[in-house]
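User: Show me a protein chain along with its predicted structure.
Assistant: Here is one chain, sequence first, then structure tokens.
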Amino acid sequence: MKCPPLEMFFWGRLVVDEFHYLNDKADRARVLSVVSNGLRSSARWALSGTTPHQDFAEVRYLAQLLGVHLGVDEQSLSKAKANARKVAAENRDKTALELFSTMLSVHSPQWHLRRHEVAEKFLARFVRQNVAEIDEIPWEERTEKIILPPAERAIYLEMETHLRALEMNKKLATKSRKASTSDREGRIREILEGSSDPEEALLKRCAHFNLSDNQSEESAMEVCMRIIALRETQKRQCMTDLQESVRSAFEQRAAILRTDPEWEGHSEIGDVEDRLAVYVADVEEHQSVNGGADQEVHRAIRELFDQGKSLASQEDDEEGPKRKKAKRTKQELELLDDEELYKAKWDLREHMHSVRAIGKELTGRTRSLRYFGWVRDFQSSQCKIQCASCKKKIGREEAGVLSCCGHVGCMQCLNRLADREECVESTCAAPAKREHVVAASALGSDQEHAQTGKYGAKLSAVVDQVKSLVEDEDRVLIFVQFPDLKDLVADALEERGVKTLQVKGSVQQQVKALSAMQCEDISEDHPRVLLLTMDDESSSGVNLTTANHAIFVHPLLADNQQQYNAYETQAIGRIRRYG
């Protein structure tokens, strides 16, 4: 038994409200197990306004709640990658034969059709939908388009370009969040600013230009200057890492060559390849960066390479006279030398992967810093530039910049070369495309926009909208998905004199907040705004019929469109309710 007080009785009716949250949340596995296997009852009801039934796996989950076995779910490859934690939980319930069957050949269309028919038969027999016998509740949906000021847009574009340049994805973000002593992993964590993945970081950046710690008093212009200083510092750290890595590579090879002098430059089958020799040749030929770079980056890598090599030579010359061989027997020497030698060669091979990764990171940081610098120059002044392709001097109205590498030129040359996936800078290997071309005139000018303060244009617009609704004695629900952004919205409302409630804390505190929001007769100074989390139980299962406005601060970050629609429907259903 996992929950004896409930499992020791036989119940007449078991009702699971908003049951889909049991499957969506990883920390609900124990509750799901108790409901599915531990509780006994004569009847089972599972209630939800957004029942998941997109594929056989979701229908099988519905059947599991009602004690009906439909079969074992065959996990698809794409779904396994998207929801690895859920897959691991399901695999624990499978026998060895069932796990082995998932590795066999793909099932036939007839097999899938049969499972589809079984799922349809279950839905036809067990699933019902209530239809209200009253008129439709009138409602209106409106999208407010917020045009970010130039400084805030530049901050968003900088992060987007920076993440693209470093080829950030969910896998890399997950790896960087793990405990690591690598400076490179630390810099990646610093880019995400507490977000779990790049998509979350960009969504937050759309809502507010600054979510870093202890920086809430900064304006957008001050954040721009801080980002430039931060990116320059990170670039210098990256250059230092590359120099130290090159030095370490030469020291490792020197230790190998003292035992095996003929291994330098080895590339034959039967032994570990000398990857340092390959890297040396690539640096000479400006091919050390996977995917290519430009002349500025190759020049910097060559300088750092020479410095690292020189440092390794100096240390080797100093330690040479002091080096002594350990006294071992011939048998021990041959055994240990063979094992240690192979391990040293393999370690050097793996080390060269990190050297190339740091070189690629340096390329990305150089490109994003160059791009952000031009964006701010275009926004803050009437600058004159020379097109890198046609060499014509042009003004801001005719100029543009490539977001993929930061090189500038006239719009005519940028578009013409982008159609051929080429950069205006002849030495740059970045594959430019039409969507990378950003016109300088489209970036706006700082002189044309008023400062929006520390909360930015979007949150200021949200606060103004909420304040006008509250002054009309309306009640408002505000949905935010991320806790740190939710706190920022609450601070912005409080600073403008709008009192808010949040469903948090103990059960008594949550009930108190909901009761206060549902109170019919309230005074003028009573809170009329409730902040809710969009993808949590706080946005479903509660009746808030006194509120008649629901505001979504940002789009929901979801795994698929069905999940997005489900959470949005649940949130809107708090105020658009029958009964």
